[in-house]
Amino acid sequence: MKRLVVLGGGESGVGTAILAKQKGYEVFVSDKNEILNKYKKVLLHNKINFEEKNHTENEILNADVVMKSPGIPDTVPLVVKLKQKGVKVISEIEFASQFTKATIVGITGSNGKTTTTLLTHHILQKAGLNVGVAGNIGNSFAQQVAEKSYEKYVLELSSFQLDGIESFNSHIAILTNITPDHLDRYNYEFKNYINSKFRITKNQTSEDYLIYDADDKTINNWLKENKTEAKLVPFSLEKELKYGAYIKENNIIINLNKDEFNMPTSALSVKGKHNIKNAMAATMAAQLLKVRKQTIKESLEDFEGAEHRLENVSKIKDVEYINDSKATNVNATFYALECMDKQTVWIVGGVDKGNDYNDLLPLVREKVKAIVCLGLDNEKIKNTFGNVVDIIVETAGAEEAVKVSYKLATKGDAVLLSPACASFDLFENYEDRGRQFKKAVRNL
Predict the structure, then answer these.
(1) pTM of the full predicted structure?
(2) Which residues contribute to the annotated binding site for ATP?
(3) What CATH number does residue 18 fall under?
């Protein structure tokens, strides 16, 4: 009997444990922190051995294979020891993929991947396909492989999940963009992070497709210097393409397999240039899976967007409150500020992953009337924007940040939570940060 050790008792860990037990593995789950009650119940119910607040090395080093949660870096001493011993350390995505024959649409990128994943799933579901959504969102891929019988999956894949793959493959891979992010996990080397993202295409064959942003210099440079077997399917806002998706006179035009798709950008339910790109990518994935054009158009018109991504929360005294808590890096916040058409009180800050805020200066100069800091260390924000914005206030939580913003905003303004940082100093995660912000707005 093969022994699988799962490091991390969260969503991906518990899902993997369930699938492994079903497939006849001896399973042990180990988490150095406390395991959340909802996951503990599942482990007990499935009679899966686990430990918490500790890693017992001799229970772990004897594994045949180890699944580590995406949040655990490769540099952790225990992981280093496992690799030195020659034990395979893989991600949930890798483990689960060997037990399903489903067609996979895999989506990665620094920004836009959640929206593109949800939008692709929405189109395929509307087309009546038997399709699941997993990866970085919803119930774990492994648990769905164990309990459901989907014929297709749309998976949102982070670089950390891709770091742990060996034979996993997406029939259709989407790469939305690459900008510096998570550099703290990649020795502050951008190229390490880039290579991580491109692992999505490493097992693709000439039967598979790589949909990518042809306006992204980083992606283009990698494709010039490296080879993928996949058929390249580009999208662009800057140039006309013979094959792929582009914009002409405010229309999205897509040429795939001699079949032209045409739709005005004004009909899209989600706004902003970045969402035109997300829509192009999702549309081409759906077309490659033979979804009818009419179904795609209807889906793009009635899609509701992702929670915590430029989400309109409320309008109070003629001031719009917008929750963009999912903006955990500078590029995501760039998109948010670009979409603002009013004077904005901007709530920013958290755990800085090596951010360079200079790219935001022109937008901040033009649109931001006040900055409200939401983090424990705000020096970099104050140093970058101190000369550009007259009012910079530091706050210690979502409730205080919202109250201060309410005082600073006047009729016709917007209050935008778009932190450009991770949330782990004051919140559990970006969802918790977004929910606390929304609650504070509703309590005004």
Answers:
(1) 0.82
(2) 109-115
(3) 3.40.50.720
